[in-house]
UniProtKB/TrEMBL annotation:
Entry keyword annotation includes Cell membrane: no
The ABC transporter domain, residue ranges: 333-566
Transmembrane segments: 12-32, 52-76, 133-151, 157-174, 240-258, 278-297
Identification of the protein by name: ABC transporter ATP-binding protein
Subcellular location: Cell membrane
Presence of the UniProt keyword Lipid metabolism in the record: no
GO molecular function, a single term: ATP binding
InterPro entries from the UniProt entry: AAA+_ATPase (IPR003593), ABC1_TM_dom (IPR011527), ABC1_TM_sf (IPR036640), ABC_transporter-like_ATP-bd (IPR003439), ABC_transporter-like_CS (IPR017871), P-loop_NTPase (IPR027417), Type_1_exporter (IPR039421)
Gene3D superfamilies linked to this entry: ABC transporter type 1, transmembrane domain, P-loop containing nucleotide triphosphate hydrolases
Lineage, uppermost ranks: Bacteria, Bacillati, Bacillota, Bacilli, Bacillales
SMART domains tied to this protein: AAA
ABC transmembrane type-1 domain sequence ranges: 20-298
Length: 576
């Protein structure tokens, strides 16, 4: 909740104005029944038209004042609420942008989306209600009771029983509902997760005929959400009949006891009408107060979830003594006794790796699936930090570089090419904001995608659908390679990014890359790609089994020979 106060700070003036306006509404609301009683007793009972007009005009004036105050209050309350939402969303976005991969593993995308949308909305609801009715409800209860006692204390005694009864009841309901709302938000996370997986994997689901299975999964998550929402809403709804019952009983009591008091000349008809009016307003204020506390319980559950993200410790930061002047010039890489373990695992996925890569050298990394190739890649731009050992770029530990500079000098093409909604030009420029048209076209030509783009009706302006749905796998791969090349990187890392390319296109691509004069690491499953590298790293189970040129490895490594055999046959090995 302290975050709420912090983010509301710039809007304190607006909040104070909203509260002053709300107090104006409240004062009018408390005065109206009093004047109504006066009008009845001094005007209607005595049939004095002038007095009726007098009190009537005052009441109309006050009603207009209250109406205007209500409208302006809503305006200020909405302003504070929306500004607050904007600021928190912005802060959350910046925080998530700064997250390391480890942080991202802790907060699934679906849960972050719920926090960005639903949780912020819950807090906004709480703030809006707070500004409209927070002080108003309790003050109306207190003021209503006091005014009723001023009008006629004997009849007003009924309030001493009904008010504590209703408040006690509502407090119990709110406590229970608060816990349930936390659970509702968790279930909403689940629904969002299933929905997100389904939307992004819809083609796969259709291809595998998994519609029924996925529908059942969604029904499961959706039913849980419905059940918890139903439980919490039911709890709230039980408060309404109880409230109405107590209210009606107290009205009956006021009428019954009031009539006795009037016939005994201890009260006037106007007093009874005024007190009935106060009783109605006090009951309404208590129910309003109930809704408000409910909104606050909901807001608290959501605020906790937002502050968890804002408070999350980002483990991958630049150390205080980071050498800001270090620059990557040559692009040499060295791994020194590197071991790495994902935070969620018990065992290392890379163990004791040591090797050096000379500037501008071209290395092919080959190895079974799960042998740690991608993990090795991720350590160079510090997507994760090593568990043990050191990774050096240009002779300096990667942790001693400014993170932005280090990453700027690396062109990384991940295994699954990810493109963003926007034009092809925008997607390539995504690699380097300042890239001019010539740079973009050159990168596309080198990535062997220029001709394809040219043949599209809108060329570089062709819009790419979400995640590049309207491009083929190989086209997506090449656009993401162009995106990496446009940065003119010192180190280029292709993680199985040429898998969908035919041999001819791939070899042209590799030739073009050679002209970039950058250190190149290529994870590949294809021997034809590996053969052209200066050296091949053969990985198995997180270790570097062998290093050498293709012809050397054919002689020294049984595993390498087997891989070659599996792709070219026994005969093919000798031809290569
Ligand atoms: N984010 C993660 N959290 C936990 N374990 C992971 C994570 N990513 C990968 N792993 C595990 O680390 C090991 C190495 O994975 P990695 O992706 O580096 O292999 P790879 O050689 O690139 O495989 P492939 O060729 O299939 O892409 C695997 O056992 C994998 O299960």
């Amino acid at each position: 909740m302290r975050y709420i106060a912090r983010y509301l700070k710039p809007y304190y003036i607006h909040m104070i104005i909203a509260w002053i306006l709300m107090l104006t509404e409240l004062t009018v609301e408390l005065l109206l029944p009093f004047f109504l009683g006066k009008m009845i007793d001094e005007g209607i009972q005595t049939q004095d038209l002038n007095t009726i007009i007098y009190w009537g005009s005052i009441m109309v004036g006050l009603a207009i004042l209250s109406f205007a105050a209500g409208i302006i209050n809503s305006f200020y309350s909405a302003h504070v609420t929306f500004k607050f939402g904007y600021d928190v969303r912005q802060k959350l976005f910046e925080k998530v942008q700064a997250f390391s991969f480890k942080n991202l593993n802790e907060y699934p995308t679906s849960s972050l989306i719920t926090r960005f949308t639903n949780d912020i909305r819950m807090i906004q609801n709480g703030i809006f209600m707070g500004l409209r009715i927070m002080l108003r409800a309790p003050l109306l209860v207190i003021g209503g009771v006091v005014m009723a006692f001023i009008v006629n204390w004997r009849i007003a005694l009924i309030f001493l029983i009904t008010v504590p009864l209703l408040i006690g009841f509502l407090l119990i309901v709110v406590r229970k509902a608060g816990k349930l709302f936390g659970k509702v938000q968790e279930r909403l996370d689940n629904v969002n997760r299933v929905m997100q997986e389904n939307l992004s994997g819809i083609r796969l689901i259709k291809a595998f005929l998994r519609k029924k299975h996925e529908t059942n999964r969604f029904i499961g998550a959706n039913s849980e959400l419905m059940n918890y929402t139903k439980k919490s809403l039911r709890l709230i709804e039980t408060s309404m009949p109880v409230l109405l019952f107590v209210m009606n009983m107290s009205l009956l009591f006021i009428l019954w006891y009031g009539s006795i008091e009037v016939s005994n000349d201890n009260a006037q008809v106007g007093d009874v009408v005024a007190i009935i009016n106060y009783a109605l307003r006090v009951s309404m204020a208590i129910s309003m107060f109930g809704f408000l506390t409910m909104a606050i319980a909901r807001m608290k559950a959501s605020a906790d979830r937002i502050s968890n993200v804002l408070d999350a410790e980002i483990d991958l930061t630049e150390s205080e003594d980071v050498q800001k002047q270090y620059r990557v010039n040559d692009g040499s890489i060295e791994f020194s006794n590197v071991s790495f373990r994902y935070p969620s695992l018990k065992e290392d996925v890379l163990s004791n790796l040591s090797f050096t890569v000379k500037p501008k050298e071209r290395i092919a990394i080959i190895g079974a699936t799960g042998s740690g190739k991608t993990s090795l890649f991720q350590l160079i731009p510090r997507l994760y930090d090593v568990t043990n050992g050191e990774v050096y770029v240009d002779g300096h530990d990667v942790r001693d570089y400014k993170l932005d500079h280090l990453r700027q000098t690396i062109g990384y093409v991940p295994q699954a090419p990810l493109l963003f909604t926007g034009s092809i030009r925008e997607n390539i420029r995504w690699g380097k904001n300042e890239a001019i048209e010539d740079d973009i076209v050159k990168a596309a030509k080198d990535a062997q995608i220029h001709d394809t783009i040219k043949d599209l009706q809108k060329g570089y302006d062709t819009k790419i659908g979400q995640k590049g749905v309207n491009l083929s796998g190989g086209q997506k791969q090449r656009v993401s390679i162009a995106r990496a090349l446009v940065r003119k990187p010192k180190i280029l890392m292709l993680d199985d990014s040429t898998s969908a390319l035919d041999l001819k296109t791939e070899s042209k691509l590799l030739e073009a890359i050679e002209r970039y004069e950058c250190t190149t690491l290529i994870v590949t499953q294809k021997i034809t790609t590996a053969m052209n590298a200066d050296r091949i790293f053969l990985m198995d189970d997180g270790q570097l089994l062998d290093v050498g040129r293709h012809d050397q490895l054919l002689k020294t490594s049984d595993l390498y020979r087997k891989i070659v055999e599996s792709q070219f046959g026994k005969e093919g090995v000798h031809e290569r």
